[in-house]
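Teaching assistant's notes for section 4

Start the section by putting this record on the projector. Ask students to predict, before seeing the second block, whether TonB family protein will look compact or extended. Collect guesses on the board.
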Amino acid sequence: MSPGPRWLLRCCVPLFVLGWLSLMLAQDVTVGPISWLDADDPPDQLPTRKAAFRPEFPEELKQSPDLGWAMFEIWLSDDGRSVQLVTYGTQPAYADALEHSYDARLRFKPGKRDGRAVNTRVRVTAVFNPAGAALKRADATPRLLDAQVIIDPRQKPERREPMCSNRTVWANVRVRPNGEATLAGGAPDELADLLRGALPQWRFAPARRGGQPVEAELRVPFIVVPPEATSGGEQVPPKILQATSPHYPWSMQASGLRGDVVVEFVVDYEGRVRKPIVVRTLNPGFNAAAIEAISRWRFEPATVHGRPVNTLVQQGIRFELRDAPGGGSDGLEVKQKANLSKLPPELRYDTPPKLTTLVQPKYPYALLREGKRGTAQVTVLVGADGRVLEVRVAKAPQPELGYALEAAAEMFAFQPALKGGHPIPAMYGFEHDFDPSERTLVPESDWAALRLEQKHPEEILTANKLDQPIKPETTKPPRFPSSVPQEVVEGEAVVEVLIDHKGRVCVPRVVSASLPEFGYAAVQAVAEWRFDPPTSGGKPGAVRVSVPFAFKRPPLAAPASPPSS
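Reveal the predicted structure now:
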């Protein structure tokens, strides 16, 4: 039996407790108490949780001299379930560490107002103090004990997402012997007053000299976010009525893999799950099972002014093997360490970039149908913010496989490489084996579609035979390929797909494209679409349709800069 998929890395990669007296300290990670997110007329009683949050200090940042922190915003229903979780971090590794300490299956004891359980929104902050601030040192720098994000009212409101985009700014803070903190300079002029006004809500422990508290300055990172977009009025979040546990996919049993999948979906005003789509995953083989499980959940809809409304929600789903150590492997394997001496100085790192979102490349249709296998390698330029800046095919004996892997890699996401504890751009090599005998690399829906094409092509409907026009329920735009020459600013492609009886997109193929890169980018995008199930005469069936795509080069974004020392 096959040992399961291994995504191979080469080229440039080695490859709550209440009250301040009960702060949890482990490897100099300080987790503060559960606190109200909004202090304006909060309920009488905070939610509580028996299991403590225990994030681990990221190994790659243990030698960093800089302070860091991360924060949860948790939206809880009146039965103690977590409905929405938003994570912020001064560096992605800190946000990731805090997020991995959270198990959504464990309920809270709900907050109360006048003795009655109510919906609540709370926060939890984890601080990662550097070694220079260690508690046991007689001479130590100030310690941060608690922090919270700062809302900039001048920015345009945005909805919150699980890994929320934010701006991290650095400023000097003077901490007095009694722990009182004041802004001491170094802040951007337009934010100085905002940071100064927020500091009284933060908590510090003073520096020490010879074991005695002294006054000292500290370089502190602040997370600045826009106001939250709301509909206004009294809001009540959606409440889970039925949560179907996901089944570990049978096709993945032999793989020995574990996986976390984040699914975004709409809870409509009837409490149904609509438009589910995977927004983050490290093992795409679990995506279909996560979507299927979430689609069966049922909610009491959110309300505004007592009226039910549609709400965008994101939910994490975890897949683990009971008998495997750690629940299984993540499936990534380092094949060759980087030779950093061959890289430009600005790309030489202490800690390599870390893959956080993996996208499964779509097997080129003709090669899949003929049962041909092959390998492709790409090199990815990862920005200092973890975004993919550029992808180039390094090796592809069969060009179609190179185009397919390139299109998938454009959608990867990373924690950035680090040098001296600061994020920097870096190169990342990735290799993928396309093997039709490895069933986990091709969705079962694609195999079923191929069998239908080969054995019963007459059963495939055409669009004019449907009861109503086919309509996408969930879409995802394609990425403009970074490998396209700079003088090319537009492109187009037409992709043919088979939509099965459940509305899933199967065996997408390029019909035409102004450049091959546009065709495969369109295939990669449409593969994640979902449609309303097609019917003919009231009976579900499969239909073949063509989908046109138009590409336009996006404006260049300003590069993300690392914090100053």
